[in-house]
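Reviewer 2 asked us to include a model.

Predict the structure of this chain.
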Amino acid sequence: MQFSKLLTLTSLLLPCSTSWGAWSDQVTPTRNDFGGIGLMQMPTARMAPDGDMSINYSRINPYVFGAVNFQPLPWMSTSIRYVSITNRLYGPSIAGDQSYKDKGIDVKFRLLEESYYLPDVAVGFQDIGGTGLFSSEYLSATKRVGPFDFTLGMAWGYLGGAGDIQNPFCQAADRMCDRADWQGGSGGTVDFNNFFRSERVGLFAGVEYQTPWDPLTLKLEWDGNDYQHEPQNNNQPQDSRFNVGIVLKPTDNLDLKLSYERGNTLSFGFTLHANLINDVIRFKKDPPVSKLADKPAEKDWDKVAKDLGSKAGFYPRKIYQNNRQVIVEGVQGKYRDREKADVRAAAILYNVTDLGTREYRFVEQSAGMSVVETTIERKTLEEKLNYNHDFNDTPQLTDVNSPDSPIGEQVWQKESNSGWGYSVNPGFTQSLGGPDGFLLYQVNLRGGLRYSFSDNFEVGGNLALNLFNNFDKYKYDGFSNLPRVRTYIREYLVNSDVGISDLQATWFNQLGSSWYSQVYAGYLESMFGGVGGELLYRPFGKDYAFGVDINAVKQRDFNQLFGFRDYETVTGHFSFYYQLPWYNLHSEIDVGRYLAKDYGATFSLYREFDNGVRLGAYATFTDVSAEEYGEGSFTKGVFLSIPFDMFSTTSSLSRAGLGWTPLTRDGGQKLGRKYSLYYMTEQRGANEVKARKQ
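Predicted model (structure tokens):
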């Protein structure tokens, strides 16, 4: 009866909405209690803008939801969520009076994009891993009419607890009528056998109204749940299936939410959001491109080398000249956008050469290994910088190729390729959602020191100073039949306030035009030391690469100084890298032996946005069963890499990395190698070469 009333209300609103065409593009999607795009409890078919990232908090008794939501692709939305069930205890005695914590992952896919007549249609999966306390599947359709956004959908599982109609899939197969009250066992697995199963499904509907005052949105929802099948028998009274709410947007990056749900419960929350595609600071105070001189200045190669470094971020190692070219071998240390570097470097050489020099070649190196060569013609540079070209046919500035050996007289060389380098960086280690405490953390300060004997041979390490640490609360090691290669994290973090994070000697070598290698020895990471090597085959301009690494390692002492424990092993992987043709997606598959002597494969996928932000996820599956692995069932995680110059007025190659792993266990654990040849040679990739030619 109530559902028919909602449909009647919707039909009455539709004719009225035709006069609101002026606001037809202003209905912006907002978050629901679970952190995804939706109404209050129910999801809509809407997606956030591409690259959107949000942090969400909602409280509706007895639940407190905290979620991070990503929009990695225009048609895919994902959420990582933690829930505190405030009227239930965690359980183990070491948790004391801590409330029960549950974590989950949601994912939603758009099946149909809205058009003039058709709505957005999406399918979603809520709480697909872990214990599955709030697991649900749903289909939703959303259509915009003026300032109104109408949603209609059906849900299986938690969101469809009201069971309004028979599950349509029951008619296809009897097994689709049975849904297990799945509690996930050791957690971490996805129960595909429960998808779209149940005897009955719940219907939901709702509308969002964008008021004439832009910061305010109103919501009305017909809930698909009856709250009489709550997890842990935590059933809640429901006086009405209508939920009403408001969203106030005081700034572009903050949403404040208030709603009245179940006919008896007040809910409130907030959303902080940003977009990974947009730089926080767009204006860069980089050195300007040198104005092209009418006559060449007197050649002073020392000054040229200095200017290339300070103005173009290209630090020369050698400079050659022949009767038609200047060739510079060096390292790019400033500009992610290589076009900014190329045009600045070429302008500097232009101003010290005459008409006889027709080309400028820049050979970019990494650890003494040649990676990519960029050629700029003098005539093309003149046309571009002097605007002497047809603007309907902008000339291509650079030609990008695999490096060739320089031909000509060496006119300059860096005095010495040896020397000291240092760095100081903060470090952060965290664990979320454990029985010892919801947030365990360590904040440290890392001081790095490196001595380079040559471009391709160095010795360097990092010393970590503990600043703040509450890992002494960490008591729960968890069950594992495997060698403890990572679950000793407490011992490594609390046994010393000063430790050697890594200290290794590394030798790089280029074995051919497409072959790169490194050999290393020392304290390779905070928990293991030993010797190892990597070989990479990366053909120029291709979307694929192959690699192999092998390492003989031994477990380090807990104080992270110079001693070792008894455990040792050999670990290594064959790796295949592939750049997908859509959305600048990068994939990696690593097959081999892990630190706990288990065998398997790691699958990684990340998207790189135009501004350099990388968002990705990985999962590792080995021959260790879920029971042997312990809680979590398999290793997985999410990572985010953010360029520093998103927040800076100057260009930089430096990055900050953030990662989330729901639980650290011993299976499927890789050695944390200091360098990756694939990333050191990334300018050879198909996407990178294509970007430099534009």
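The chain has three domains: 2-275, 301-413, 419-693. Confidence is low (pLDDT under 50) at residues 1-25. We have added this to the supplementary material.
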